[in-house]
Amino acid sequence: MKKKILAVLLATGVAATTLLGGSILVSAADDGGNTAQARTLDEIKKDGKIKIGVFSDKNPFGYVDENGDVQGYDIYFGKRLAKDLLGSEDDAEFTYVEAASRVEYLQSAKVDVILANFTVTDDRAEKVDFALPYMKVALGVVSPDDALIKDVKDLEGKKLIVVKGTTAETYFTDNYPDIELVKYDALLDGRGDAFSTDNTEVLAWAQQNEGFSVGIESLGDIDTIAPAVQKGNTDLLNAINDEIKSLADEQFFHKDFEETLKPVYGDNINPDDLVVEGGVVDSEEKAEDADAAETEDSDAASDDTKDAETTEEPEETGAADAE
Question: I need a labelling partner for 246 at 20 to 30 A (CA). Which of 16, 76, 141, 291 fits?
């Protein structure tokens, strides 16, 4: 009998508050529809706590470990952000969010910032303000080894699990409308022939679930993941951008990778293929280097022209003297 994927999605319906390792953790169901003014940076500093929306079920980016502590790549960054803005990692107040509730939690001011594997898209950028990126990502597809999906064409007549509110849902809806999508919002059990989400997540999922492999490692465009704040919360946005820039000096996100992602991925992923330092992705760096090289070449050509003109002048003078 063909194996089916169980979409591991946390169902959280009851609000609760727990103290975890000094940091406050708040779990709340999405009640949707409400809007409220976000707290300013000054108000956050006065309160002494920054409210950060994170995943609780997306190991290794945001998850609850066997001891009940919230861990992961985004958590590691969130604690550092709290320390540098407010003085202590314990000043981070983590709130569980779901993929579909990330925008709403910012718009309703339930959280000050989202650090939940949030891919930057044009549509989302109309609703929230994204800070500089700290990670690169594409889509991936994981499926059972005995029925491995290696190409999108293999999904014809199959059921593809996607999480509501993710870029995977948007991508397949827009580009492959004939593929049947099975969408789960906050349900623990769900079945299908394959599961698609960020390739970073499916690679980790496959590592942790024997009998499954990632047959499609990169699909669609290479996107970026970034913190997000409520639209117009400029002071907080600038502070986060400044933080990301300053952390580049110590290669912070490479350290984050070593601490939180490498134990899961091992040597299967090159951190440079995933990590973004200082908010600058490789393509931007290469473009800047190309522009600089082009400028240097232009300057060098200009200098050569001037040298040639200078060299020719004595010959013209000599000819005049001979006459």
Answer: 291
For the chain, the C-alpha Rg in angstroms (whole number) is 25
Report the pLDDT value the prediction gives residue 292, as an integer from 0 to 100. 45
- The predicted pLDDT at position 163 comes to 86
List the beta strands (DSSP E) in the chain. Answer: 16-20, 23-27, 50-54, 57-58, 62-64, 70-71, 92-96, 113-114, 128-130, 135-144, 159-163, 180-184, 194-198, 212-225, 228-230
CB 20 within 8 A of CB 68: yes
| Model pTM score | 0.72
DSSP 269: S
Please answer whether residues 96 and 26 qualify as being in contact, where contact means their C-beta atoms are separated by less than 8 angstroms.
Answer: yes
| Percent helix, strand and coil across the chain, each to the nearest 5 | 45, 25, 35
Nearest to 98 by CA among 180, 203, 28: 28
Q: Tell me: the pLDDT tens digits for 233-286?
A: 999 999 999 999 999 999 999 999 999 999 988 887 889 989 999 999 975 444
Q: How far is CA 158 from the centre of its chain?
A: 28
